[in-house]
Amino acid sequence: MNGDRMTDAGEQRVSLERKAFYNKIDAANCTPLWEVLHSLVTVKPNTPCLPYLWKWATVWPWLQEGGQLITAREAERRVLVLENPGLRGQTRVTHSLYAGLQLILPGEVAPAHRHSQSALRFILHGGGAYTTVDGEKVTMNVGDFVITPSWTFHDHGNLSDEPMVWLDGLDLPIVELLDAQFREDGASDMQKVERSSGTNLARFGNTMKPVEYKARSRTSPLFWYPYERTREALETLRDQDDAHVCWGHKLQYTNPVTGDWAIPTMGTFMQMLPSGFRGKPYQSTDSTVYAVVEGRGRCVINGQAMEFGPKDVFVCPSWMPYTLEADEQSVLFSYSDRPVQQALDLWREKF
Ligand code: 1HN
Hints:
By secondary structure, the chain is α+β, with helices and mostly antiparallel strands. Helix content is 21%, strand content 31%. The longest helix has 19 residues, at 8-26. 1-hydroxynaphthalene-2-carboxylic acid is lined by residues 77, 79, 100, 102, 110, 119, 154, 168, 170, 172.
């Protein structure tokens, strides 16, 4: 008999035999690959991550409500986690990354700690709160990108008279996957400030570096990228270059000493879409989180338009084609796990 053309009775016998075999080996923690091979090694990425947009108008009242319910000190970090609808209960915005919106009210302090996870802050709302990273204090404003490198002490505070909200991006799921996580509380809530705002920019923000500088990690020693400078660069590109058909004018943040990514696990970008921009479809294997700084438009993905405006956050999953459109000139911050994928020769894009 041809093996591909078994009778029903024959098939039943085989499947019973196989079941019995699976049960026998299961008791010793063995399992047949052939039952799962095709769901493991798929033709293309099969991400559980879904496209989604969080409207600022929806979450801002909830952030304020959270502010009434718990202090930053008690919460340690008072954050509304942005959970991907395809990954509920997993504290993640994509399969590999975390996102949350952190509120810090006037006079509050978020106490010092450090952890192996790297963090980025992207300021969405308010101005005048500070973060102290390894003894250097920077005051943050809307559109600024700030890095908390792995294993550096950091505490935040708000000496202004308005609430401040930023987007936290962390590589939590990556560090968890690798079981490489450590944390430690600071000796006191607030670190002793050894250097004030601007030291960092003076040292590393002018295409120069102190002659005695020795890198202690791969993370950028420049940890504060003020929006003013980023925006000026994008304006110049807008005035001089043609917009890319998919992404308009797009810059990536770098470690100024090495020219490599600013954070080894998370790629960070800022792009400008000219008014009236209608992007061509783009797809890449790095699921990407976008935060809107300025402008209005939409991201069309999976046949659906996610309409965006200032301070909205949205996510585009791995390998799903999407287009970006701008009705007004728009500026978008974004982050993804691109550096990890590129380091492992896994990253692909198509447009
Ligand atoms: C964290 O340390 C911060 O330092 C924010 O502001 C969000 C989410 C998970 C784990 C640690 C912060 C965090 C976090």
